[in-house]
Amino acid sequence: MSGKFQAPKGVSEYFPPRSNLFSHVVNKLSAPALAAGYELIELPVFEDTELFTRGVGESTDVVSKEMYTFEDRGGRSITLRPEGTAGVMRAVIEHNLDRSQLPVKLYYRGPFFRAERPQAGRYRQFYQFGIEAIGSNDPYLDAEVIAIAYKGYQDLGLQDFTLQITSLGDAESRSNHRIDLVKFIAGLKLDEETKARSARNPLRLFDDKREEVKSQMDQAPQLLDYLNGESSENFEKVKQALESVGIPYQVNPKMVRGLDYYTGTTFEFVHHGLGAQSGIGGGGRYDGLMETLGGQNLSGIGFGLGIDRIILAMEAESVVPKDLKYIDLFVIPLGSAAQAKVFSLANQLRNAGFVVEQSYGDRGLKGAMKAADKSGARYSLVLGDAEISDGSAQLKEMSSGEVVSVTLDSLAQTLAEKVKI
Ligand code: HAM
After folding, report:
1. Bond preceding residue 17 cis, omega within 30 of 0
2. Tell me: the pLDDT tens digits for 56-99?
3. Distance (Å, rounded) from C-alpha 60 to C-alpha 201?
4. Which of 55, 197, 376, 380 could lock onto 330 through a cystine, CB 3.0 to 4.6 A?
5. Whose CA is closest to atom 26 on ligand 1?
6. pLDDT higher than threshold 80 for residue 308
7. Which numbered atom of ligand 1 lies nearest the CA of 83?
8. Handedness of CA 123, 125, 127, 132 (dihedral sign)
9. Residue burial 379-401, b: 16+ Cβ < 10 Å; e: rest
């Protein structure tokens, strides 16, 4: 068989020029996390399947319908990570990161895999930027985590989004709510599969998209009304902390996150320009996760931000910066002596901190100038035999066409003045 290959269905891919936007987004999202002391954690994209069934929860769509699970050559059940938190927790426990200074503050970014029905903004391989802060239940840490995401979105120029928050409370609050919720659900008309699902986690019914279930759930008891004294005090502190730094939010008591480990503060950032796949990020606290995965009983909080959807949101809001590929100088050699000279000149300038491209092959002056233009370089310089013997050349500003004569020895200095490095 011959013929071309295509990427597997439903994956997101980034190549130039859009990949420049991808790295811009990652850098802007990382900066506020770095500013708050989070450190990189780089983990495998596949783990033991049980890490996710136990950690994320079997009642979730993610685990029950969307995992890429396979047997490896050693007969082990392996799953491509559908999310990042369970893997981070596995690594924290395995490598004893929770035995020193707490909270452990980590960030990660990379591909995640969910076998969902592909559509705009929903992919089978997608990218997240995430942070996790493990080992403190201080409500100000909740606010820190939310503030980091918010700052990232702001620095990317996004405006048309809303932060929704709620609290799932502590174990006591949840169990009081659960008693009433289970009673309420027992009185509903549901099919067997839905009943079985709600028996595993009754909160899942709040997330059901079917109209007949949604309308029945309208009157269901809300968890927010069941928070005990400590839980509601914590939630108040989180809200006040957000207000104190000017972060607007909307309390959404009906919010249900798609993963089972959440407790306490949970949140979602919803963008208004994306249609159905509007969640550009979400997260929350997970009090029992570490113990569930065999570690000590420490609380944690974090988020995962969807890089693909953030890019779509930036495009929808027309806030994509223009000059994401930045080149200071494009050098064009004419003739073989010039090729050797340009190679070493470009190398020297790059080592001095400039971004330099050069033309290759014998494409002639016209073709090379076209390439210089296309590259988006701010300046260009043509080097032929005459320039080499003179030791000087014409430095051209591409936007204005203005030309100045420079000696090759002072090129780095002249360029530094012009591009201000
Ligand atoms: P999540 O809400 O499942 O949370 O995913 C976080 C974000 O990833 C979503 O808001 C969305 O932007 C993006 N996302 C999810 N699925 C897809 C998809 N199929 N295609 C494109 N983007 C998608 C988590 O994954 C948690 N681990 C977050 C967290 C960290 N909670 C605590 N710590």
Report:
1. yes
2. 988 888 999 999 999 999 999 999 999 999 999 999 999 999 99
3. 9
4. 380
5. 304
6. yes
7. 25
8. positive
9. bbbbbbeebbeeebbebbebeee
